[in-house]
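Note to self: keep these together.
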Amino acid sequence: MLSQPTAPVAHPLDAAAIAQAHQLYCQLTGQSLRLGFDRERMWYELLRAGFSLQDLHAVITYLQREIRAGRRYVGALKLCNLLQLDRFEEDLQISRVRLRPPTPPAPDPPPLLPLNPEQPQQSRQRALQGLRQIKAVLQ
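Structure:
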């Protein structure tokens, strides 16, 4: 059973939507494939399932990254493989997986205590005394 895609189709599911998806695929993969009836049907099924152009972009860029890293074969980008709903959904979900847990938020800094007006002067005097001692040792 397919889980709900991330975003519903924002445009009517018509020939223009299918052509736009196919054009995005060709643009991202550098291919020039004709949009015949068989391919229109596969695009129709993908878009009807609720997947968006953003989902398509995410899956293609994920697969390209995996192919460059040698973890996937270029055949994963074949249109007939890419548009299989179960595979597309799995690749989309894997593209979103976090391999490391999110970093915990930084702890709040401790509250500042009110300073004694003499405290900065005392700190300066201690620093000067330390510098005088270092200077004496170096001479």
